[in-house]
Design a protein that fits this description.
By secondary structure, this protein is mainly alpha-helical. It folds into two domains: about 180 residues, no CATH class; about 300 residues, no CATH class. About 70% of the residues lie in helices and about 0% in strands. The protein has a two-stranded antiparallel ribbon. It is globular, with a radius of gyration of 24 Å. The mean pLDDT is about 90.
């Protein structure tokens, strides 16, 4: 039941009507109804994995109660470790088991050993990375006394792990932010609901008109990259750069919009990342819920641990601050890459992000000094354009590893780009290029808003606004063809 499918539209409509106009007098019944609706939505993909979702959710709920109930620190710690193991082992088993087995076999084969090890044809439960991270954040926040568990809130907590707009691909709205909204009475707000519909409309436009149109050419170019000129390969990675943004940000906009329809405020997940001036700013704008999750639960604990162990300003010849940042950023981004999939391409992609972030961190202060000496302001138009262009090129380069099926394919793709054929005319797709230009013009003028068309037409006459909305709808219908899954469903 894709967000862009007719069954999902009917499902959301039924949920909306019953939720607001039949069950609106009782908050507990409303929440229970949303929980059942979320399980129906998730079970629509594969009902067997409902048992896994329920097991993970109930395990975390019950162990969290024990963590809070225990007065002795070591008992709390053991329950906390048990919860971490349940979540992490489940994720590793379903997502990484065969990858680690194959990696181990390859490693020992380097030393001349041959071994046959057992592997399984394991089906990856859709959305597992997202609801495992929701569960982990709940357990960690309970352990750190950031959130209080109430035994009677079982259904509310289960809903915070499985809320249907966000369970498959985020945003990773942590229970600490979602639970208070679930437990508070919600009243229908016409302005919020219409804003939600507008955001859903823009999300569907991003997915069907932009992402899916790019996907056709991207799949063709990456599928047979050896036969294309370097210029066409550059076009291919540019189109993928647009595709992955329009696809994932489109999903996030739809999810946030559905949340608004139901009276929830789900966190913003994208803030026009391709207008960023450096790699650090880019990752503050891209998949915000995931990057802040890794920052809070991986990077900061590592930085705190190292800073406690090393009291001096230097560790041998290395500045402690640089050491902390380097170790933290490498571990964080290696895990971020691995989170995206069981493939070395994702690990390399993650390490590349860590490398570019490290370079950015090192040159920030010297760069400011140089600009000051040259009397060049930070907001200089030319400097802003050059910074943004360099950042976009870095991101495009790293997306090659993200999109490739293997390291070998990625390097072959890169070698194809760095050839004389890159100076030839690419096999252009005019329709896609026109749509992309239109898309980024709208994004640019709407970059100060929560999403591109939020309030863009608010001062215009109603007839003009409705013409534009109907124009968007007709464009969506015109370009809607074969349904394509969202890219992040496989993560």
């Amino acid at each position: 039941m894709l967000f862009t499918s007719v069954p999902f539209v009917l499902f959301t409509f039924i949920v909306f009507i019953l939720y607001w106009f039949v069950l609106n007098r009782n908050l507990k019944i409303q929440n229970f109804f949303l929980l059942i609706g979320s399980y129906v939505f998730y079970g629509w993909w594969d009902w067997r994995f409902l048992f896994l979702l329920f097991f993970i959710s109930m395990s975390n709920f019950l162990i969290a109660i024990e963590i809070q109930r225990q007065e002795k620190k070591h008992y709390r710690k053991w329950f906390f470790i048990a919860a971490l193991l349940i979540n992490i082992i489940t994720l590793v088993l379903f997502k990484y088991f065969n990858f680690f087995v194959y990696s181990f076999i390859h490693l020992i084969s380097v030393f001349g050993f041959k071994v046959n090890m057992l592997t399984f044809n394991i089906i990856l439960p859709i959305g597992i990375s997202f609801y495992i991270f929701l569960s982990l954040s709940y357990i960690i926040d309970v352990y750190q006394h950031k959130i209080t568990v109430v035994r009677k809130d079982c259904f509310d907590v289960l809903l915070s792990f499985s809320f249907f707009p966000i369970i498959l691909a985020g945003p990773i709205q942590r229970p600490i932010g979602l639970l208070p909204q679930i437990q508070s009475r919600r009243l229908f707000n016409y302005v919020q609901a219409t804003d939600g519909l507008r955001q859903i409309l823009w999300g569907v436009f991003m997915k069907i008109v932009i992402a899916d149109n790019c996907a056709v050419t991207v799949d063709t170019i990456f599928g047979e990259s050896a036969k294309y000129a370097g210029s066409t390969l550059i076009l291919g990675i540019f189109l993928f750069t647009v595709q992955i943004y329009a696809d994932f940000a489109g999903y996030s906009n739809i999810a946030i919009g559905i949340g608004k329809l139901l009276g929830f405020n789900i966190m913003k997940n994208f803030a026009y990342p391709y207008f960023a001036r450096d790699i650090r700013e880019f990752w503050k704008r891209w998949n915000i819920s995931l990057t802040t999750w890794f920052r809070d639960y991986i990077f900061l604990p590592i930085a705190y641990f190292i800073s406690r162990k090393i009291k001096s300003d230097r560790f041998y010849l290395i500045q402690t601050e640089i050491l902390i940042y380097t170790v933290g950023i490498i571990v964080t981004w290696m895990l971020t890459g691995l989170w995206h999939g069981a493939n070395y391409t994702f690990i390399v992609w993650g390490l590349l992000q860590g490398f570019f972030l490290f370079i950015n961190h090192v040159i920030t202060k010297p760069r400011k000094k140089i600009l000051k000496r040259l009397n060049v302001r930070h907001n200089n138009i030319l400097l802003t354009f050059v910074d943004s262009l360099i950042t976009l090129m870095i991101i495009m380069f790293s997306w090659i590893f993200f999109r490739s099926s293997s390291i070998e394919q990625a390097f072959n793709y890169i070698s194809g780009i760095f050839s004389m054929s890159s100076f030839t005319m690419p096999e252009v797709t005019p329709k896609a290029i026109f749509l992309i230009q239109l898309f980024f013009v709208i994004e640019w003028f709407g970059r100060e808003k929560e999403y591109a068309i939020a309030g863009m037409f608010s001062q215009w006459p109603k007839p003009v606004k409705w013409i534009i909305y109907y124009g968007i709808i007709l464009t969506i219908l015109w370009y809607s063809g074969e349904e394509q899954q969202f890219i992040y469903f496989k993560f």
